[in-house]
Write a structure and sequence with these properties.
mainly alpha; Arc Repressor Mutant, subunit A; 2 domains
Length: 169
C-alpha cells in the first residue's frame, strides 16, 4: 500500500483501534503509553515513526513518547535507527518481533531458575508454598524443553506464509 493509500485510511477509526488494543496490552501489564506507541508503530505500513510523528499521531507530549520508547527499546520491542546525515531518530518495530520477545523471555526465566530453586528449598519442597515453587520450576522446565521445537515450527510456518503472501523471507 502506498503512502497515499495509507493516508486515505480512516485515521479516527485507527486511533480508536490503537487505544482499544493498547488497553488490552496495558491490562496485561505493559505501561499504557508504551502500549499506545507500540500499537501505533504496528499500524504503520513502514513500521517506523519519529517521536514527533508519534506525539502528533497519539496527541500526546513529546515527554510521554520519550518514556514510552525508552521502555520499548529496553524491552527490545523496538529499535532506534538514524538515517545517515540525519539528526532524527526513527523507532522501528523489529522484524520477527514475537519470536525475539518469546526467546528473550524464556532466557530470562531460565536465569531465574536458581533463585526459584532457592525459594523452594527455603520454604520446604513438600510444603504448600514449596510445592507452588516446585510446580513453577517444572512448568518452566517443560517450556524450556518444548520451546525450541515450537519456535522451529513457527520459523517454518512463517517462511511458508511469507512465500504464500509473496513477501520473501
Amino acid at each position: 500500500m502506498s503512502e497515499v493509500q495509507e493516508t486515505q485510511r480512516d485515521q479516527a477509526a485507527i486511533l480508536r483501534f490503537i487505544e482499544r488494543y493498547a488497553g488490552h496490552l496495558a491490562d496485561a501489564g505493559m505501561q499504557r503509553m508504551a502500549a499506545r506507541v507500540f500499537v501505533a508503530l504496528l499500524c504503520q505500513d513502514s513500521g517506523r515513526m519519529t517521536a514527533t510523528d508519534m506525539a502528533e499521531s497519539l496527541q500526546v507530549s513529546p515527554a510521554a513518547i520519550s518514556g514510552a520508547v525508552r521502555y520499548l527499546t529496553q524491552a527490545n520491542m523496538v529499535e532506534r535507527e538514524r538515517e545517515p546525515g540525519s539528526r532524527r531518530d526513527y523507532y522501528v518495530v523489529k522484524d520477527d518481533l514475537w519470536y525475539d520477545v518469546i526467546t528473550r523471555r524464556e532466557q530470562l526465566i531460565h536465569r531465574w531458575e536458581s533463585t526459584m530453586r532457592e525459594g523452594m528449598d527455603l520454604l520446604g519442597e513438600n510444603t504448600p508454598a514449596g510445592m507452588r515453587w516446585k510446580e513453577t520450576l517444572e512448568f518452566y522446565a517443560f517450556l524450556h524443553e518444548r520451546l525450541p521445537d515450537v519456535m522451529l515450527e513457527w520459523r517454518e510456518r512463517r517462511a511458508e506464509l511469507h512465500r504464500k503472501w509473496g513477501l520473501g523471507d
